[in-house]
Amino acid sequence: EVQLVESGGGLVKPGGSLRLSCAASGFTFSSYSMNWVRQAPGKGLEWVSSISSSSSYIYYADSVKGRFTISRDNAKNSLYLQMNSLRAEDTAVYYCARVYIAARCFDYWGQGTLVTVSS
Amino acid sequence: QSVLTQPPSVSGAPGQRVTISCTGSSSNIGAGYDVHWYQQLPGTAPKLLIYGNSNRPSGVPDRFSGSKSGTSASLAITGLQAEDEADYYCQSYDSSLSGPHVVFGGGTKLTVL
Q: Which residues of chain A have a pLDDT value below 70?
């Protein structure tokens, strides 16, 4: 069974940093591109970042470029999101999602981890 | 403001048919990128509902169907049931100077009357 479990969320002050993790199991993690998608309270889905299976290709939304860094450790079946210079508008539930390569959609999602940026 | 435009809300009575539109442009849906649909039940993570414009993952009832034409796509739900009450999101890709990137619609809240 495919499982994605996020962790690392919490309360952080504006300008602070946080590192999110996503532990994957039930599939060959090293064969799949992965993404982070966030959802602000009461709002819609917003794509944040993507990383290819071998980390060769990395993309970011303009809203986080230069502040967030996506990475992965295929030996540990883990995906990460390092978030620096956090702003109030980064407050959201952050989901990791697996890419179904054949269709370039997200076929499995984690349960999400809440990041709250507030003083 | 989302790149893909969806109606904020739709509603229907049990047993009825509803459709949710997803309107894009020549840089995303009109450029040939596929459209995918997700269902998000209250308090849960999104779930893939339709992929590749009109394909259903295993386990998704055939009451759900998708289509795409030109710069728009639609999700249709027939035989509406109470458990269909959820938020629905379309997703595609959009061309940019830095390469294609994921875009979502703003979401549509379906209310079953």
A: none
